[in-house]
Amino acid sequence: MGNPGTQDGGNCVDSDCDTHSFAEAVNAEGLCGANDWRLPTVDELHSVTHLGRTDPSIDEDFFPNTSSSRFWSASPYAGNSDNAWNVNFNNGNDNWNNKSNNNRVRLVRGGE
């Protein structure tokens, strides 16, 4: 597991939340009648990028209002447990960031 990142004690208040607690809060709410929401892997995030597009690098017909920002994945960075992979929806590239950084979250449902 490595470093879990910067946690706020497990409470989601306004936008102050860690990724794990956010997914738990969404599941407790039963968003869209489901309770199996989770953080996607870096490969799953790449599967919705459109490398022929930029700003954002995603098909806006299917994913409207997507920010051209970095989105966290559940994929840890093997070189340092303080980091995890993210996908930049401005250009579709991936990179790793320190888990204490503020990136956006897009949850997915079901098994990996």
Q: How would you characterize the overall build of this protein?
A:
14% of the residues lie in helices and 20% in strands. The chain is an alpha+beta fold and 112 residues long. The chain has one domain (19-109). A three-stranded antiparallel beta sheet has the order 2-3-4. It has a two-stranded antiparallel ribbon with strand order 1-5. β2 and β3 form a beta hairpin. The mean pLDDT is 86.
Structural class designation:
alpha+beta
The helix/strand order is: HEHEEEE
Task: Bin the helical content.
Answer: 10-25%
User: How many beta-strand segments?
Assistant: 5
* Measured distance between first and last alpha carbons: 17 Å
Count of DSSP H/I helices: 2
What's the domain count?
Answer: 1
Strand percent estimate: 15-25%
Radius of gyration: 14 Å
- Largest sheet: spatial strand order: 2-3-4
Mean pLDDT equals 86
Shape: globular
Q: Uncertain regions: pLDDT < 50 for 5+ in a row?
A: none
